[in-house]
Amino acid sequence: MICDRCHKNEANVHITKIVNGVKQELNLCDKCAKEIEEINMIGDVEFDTPFSLQNIINGIMDYVNYNKSSKDVNNYELVCKNCNTSYREFKKDGLLGCSECYKNLNEALIPIIKRVQGSIEHTGKVPKKSAKDIYNKRKIIKLKQKLQKAIALEEYEKAAEIRDEIKELKSE
Amino acid sequence: MKNWIYSVNNENNENNIVISSRIRLARNIEGIAFPHRIDSKDGKSIVKDVEKAFYNTKYPNEYFKTIYLWENDLIKNRVFFDKHLISYKLVSNMDKSAFIVNDNETISIMINEEDHLRIQAISAGLNLKETFDVADKFDDLLEEKVNYAFDEQLGYLTACPTNLGTGLRASVMLHLPILSMQNEMDKIFNTVSKIGMTVRGLYGEGSNVQGNLYQISNQITLGLEEEEILNNLLAVVKQIINQEHISREKVMNKYSYEFKDKIFRSLGLLRSAYLLQMQETLGLLSNVRLGVEMGIIKDVTFSTLNQLLIDISDASIQLEIDEKLSSKELAYRRAEIVRNKLQMSKSIGGDNNDV
């Protein structure tokens, strides 16, 4: 058996972990086992708790898959065209390969995001340069709400200012 | 923004049980693989690109420098982690990670953590709004030069879906000895997790609780505006602070002598012990901190206590010494550091370092 970490030496340290009822095995060579031990030894912070976010995501994914049928088998084969990360790999460590994965694995990811975050609609900050159109669009929506409010309160001077601001943004 | 370790006044206000406020923004560069999918060579070239972008922005008149983790050994990097300047993930990616930090050590931009960029601002006391504004400003500056991965629906795209949307993790470090003593923390943990927040130990994600220090942070990052996230967290933190104060007063009224006895015994122990284990020290320091917070101990400052939190870690002790110390030698040196910092038994024992 070859070491899971360096993929070079013969593995002679075997670790079995059971997290949320799922068995995980790690086979390491002497050198890698020592290095991992060194990282863990220094300080007394316990990092690999069974309740880390990635483990929880993993549990959620199992649950999502359990509830659906054959469609997920197809999800398993989804691969990102940009970085070659597959849904299968994502499932293993809870990490995507690149920003394009969100497009390429979208179908499989959306239900998971919904469960983890409770929402799939970003309402916060928008980068001014990288997403200028969206930035302006959202700003216009906010200004329009402000405009309605100003009109309702009969603050016409303020309303006129907001109207001009919207005009300016639209012409950009 | 004040550095949480070195510049804390002994102000006697209701918020003095808050040690620090921290903001972290997760950002990625469009199109390129996330740090866990790239090798050390590509990682280093990302560091270079980010540096180029950062040092060419009109950042405020402050001195910044880059620290390349691959140039240091594990111990040195671990000390940055102990200071809460970087995350453990950055340390474990040390073959390709770096961070840009200001002189005051309140801002650190981590490169090649779980995401390409983690912009962090940390300051003393309960100060979420200002801390956020600083992080936000650096985010804007970087964005002028770096193409961020952003999606209209999902917001800022991150390696792990748990950070999607705002990419914002706001956290507050609190000292809650009495709520811990009364086993209230489990209840608090259950309650806050229902409203999208979480309680963690001293060193953040996955770490154990030590010295009655807790970090409360938002769990949900998508679907809320930044301001809502901050306001929700602030509301929860204020309630917890209030609960801790009420409990303190109750205990103090009922068990005044026992209370003072415990606090001053702890101080006495720290000022005289010759061997101190980490866990024990953190427990004793928590009692002393409680004494300072309640105005019972007057000759110890929060700054001293915060510095001790860092100086007593294995990595900090080991940093100054070439050969690897045994656990007994670490305990001996730890006790020496504590005695010196708390300024009492300087003359006792002399310079005999033999263990």
- Tell me the overall shape of chain A: elongated
Q: Any low-confidence stretches of chain A, pLDDT <50, length ≥5?
A: 38-51
Q: How many discrete domains of chain A?
A: 3
The total of helices of chain B stands at: 12
Nearest-angstrom radius of gyration of chain B?
21 Å
Biggest interface, chains and residue tallies: A-B, 47 and 60 residues
The coarse silhouette of chain B is globular
State the distance separating the first and last CA atoms of chain A. 62 Å
**What is the spatial order of strands in the main beta sheet of chain B?**
2-3-4-5-1-8-10-9
The separation of the N and C termini of chain B measures 42 Å
How much β-strand is present in the residues of chain A?
5-15%
Task: Average the pLDDT over all residues of chain B and give the rounded result.
Answer: 90
Provide a count of the helices of chain A: 8
**Proportion of residues in helical segments of chain A:** 40-55%
Quaternary assembly: heterodimer
Order of helices and strands of chain B: EHEHHEEEHEEEHHEEHHHHHH
Give a short account of the largest sheet of chain B.
Answer: 8 strands, antiparallel
